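re: ur question from yesterday

yeah so i grabbed the chain u mentioned. its 234 aa long if i counted rite. heres the sequnce exactly as i have it in my notes:
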Amino acid sequence: MPTFTVTGDIDPFLHVRLQRGESVFCESDAMVMMEDTLDLRARIQGGLLQATFRRLANGESFFQQQITAKRGSGDCLLAPKLPGALQVLDVGAEQYCIADDAYVAATDGVDVVAQLQSVGGALFGQTGGFFIGRSSGQGQIVVSGFGALFTLDVLPSRETIIDNGHVIAWDSRLRYSLSMSTRRGSGLLGNLVNSVVSGEGIVLKFSGQGKVIICSRNRNSFVSWLGEKINGKH
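ran it thru and got these structure tokens back, copy pasting raw so excuse formatting
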């Protein structure tokens, strides 16, 4: 199986080592460098329908890059679109749901398929519209997040509440619901007012047992802040 190694402390590369005949899939334009023993081509992974769904689910490009070691072993370097950390996840016994723009690469034998989520999650969750990405198969998948990454262990004894803009990926066995507030028993109007006043926004409440990968920076908040700073100069 190809070897994934995260290299570098700030905005790291994904170093991929391939033996002859092995392949990896990665997001379009992820390739930074590769040796001449490797071939790169565009491919619609999983067929036309799944490619369309992944485009809706994770903001992925319609075409992915497939890198194959055709003429011998070789190395390549990949990088995500946004600055931030990378994390390699083992899939097989555990499968993961993946939020918008978090997918970077996967070993051959792993697919990212589209999974329909609830209307509430589609409209308010910011995790991928009506479809979210879900891994299938066996191997490894690499995700990225804006800023640093941290892995939370959700336990059956308590819910874990996370701001939806910080969620990158989560164990597909976990249950999750959306809320406009971390408070309980305030009613719809009370939660809405508290959400607006506190700047809390939408949160995801996870229950069950499994891992959730979160990032330290909220991309949408950063874009809004940057836009205010730029517009304020004019």
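noticed a couple things. The first strand starts at residue 3 and ends at 7. also Residues 55 and 61 are 6 Å apart (CA to CA).
anyway ttyl
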